[in-house]
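Let's practice the habit of predicting before peeking. Look at the sequence and jot down your guess about where helices and strands might fall. Then scroll down.
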Amino acid sequence: MQISTRILFIEIKNSEYTFLVGENNEDNDFKLIYKNCIQTKGIVNNKIIDFELAYKSLKNNLHFIEQKFNFTFEETILILNNFECSISNFTGFKKLNGSQLTKENISYILNSLKSKINESEKHKTILHIFNTKYNLDKNQIENLPIGLFGNLYSHELSFFLINSNDFKNFNNLFNKCNLRIKKIILKSFIEGVNLINNNKDLDTFFKIKINRNNSELIFFENSALKFTQNFDFGSDIILNDISKITSLKKETIIKLISNSLLKINSPEECIEKKYFENANFRKIKKKLINDVAEARIQEIAELILLKNINLVGLPKKVRPVYLSIADQLNVDCFKKSYETTFSKNNFFLVKFIKEDLPSEFSLYHDASKIAHYGWQKEAIPITQDKQSLLARIFKSFF
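Done guessing? Here is the structure:
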């Protein structure tokens, strides 16, 4: 398939559009050549609440970009960031009684699982479906085992669904701008794919993003997105707690952290008088601030990972945890606490990652490849064509 020299990405996060333009040169090297974030009043919490306002924001910025590059975009890759999805994991079975596993057996399982989704989620639309596990006679197989002989075959799929009205609203919005949605992709999916592509032999892992005011957990199993969860707290909760307990202003705490607060010479060492400026000086131990931070980081780790009830069924084995913290000052000051806390029980191997500009280039390059060629474990690349569901499933397999 011919890849366009220019690719338009539109990312929607809460009430914000992010417009990005990527370009492939003659050597097929990808680079981002444009990025702009705007606020729109027509979208709140990733839902279109005022169609006309959302349309005007999209249309005006699209027109500006097309004028800038003297290029008319006919399609876009729509990326949904921090989007709440319904997630269902189903396993289908087929008795083989010693016979060979065929395409028809897979067809039977997939149709059965699809029927379950249609019955249980009547007001939802499938966004992504991933092949999570293939088991033949209780032995996990890496690839689809068509042609092998056995007695019992099981096939696990993970379904990610969005509200059907949201799906229709997005399509109508972009259609009104004469812009076809080539593919809708979850940002969490792209981020996981990016980690796999940049880390040899990586297929099962957690990624945890701690922003200032919110956090996100992403879990990949066997190179397939298995689970995501959003949280309404972030790293700012640590500074807020310190401020509440010490009665220090948040700005003062930031200054303290910026000046290597954690270099504590003794348990009795107090904050220097110079940090109080116009406020009354009080003896506050540096260790107290460190203890408050460690307690809050412990709570964050338990809510997101260590005691998350949604992860109870996972086997107890060592798994990599890629930890991304947006506030670099927070990382510099409390990195050891994060590492120790999230590595508790020796089941998790913490690796810090930084969301920098080069990684952003790589991320959207991966998004482009997913939109054009699909992903190895995505069972149904959702596109706007008229193929049947089953036809699209087998197109991705074969």
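How did you do? The first strand starts at residue 6 and ends at 13.
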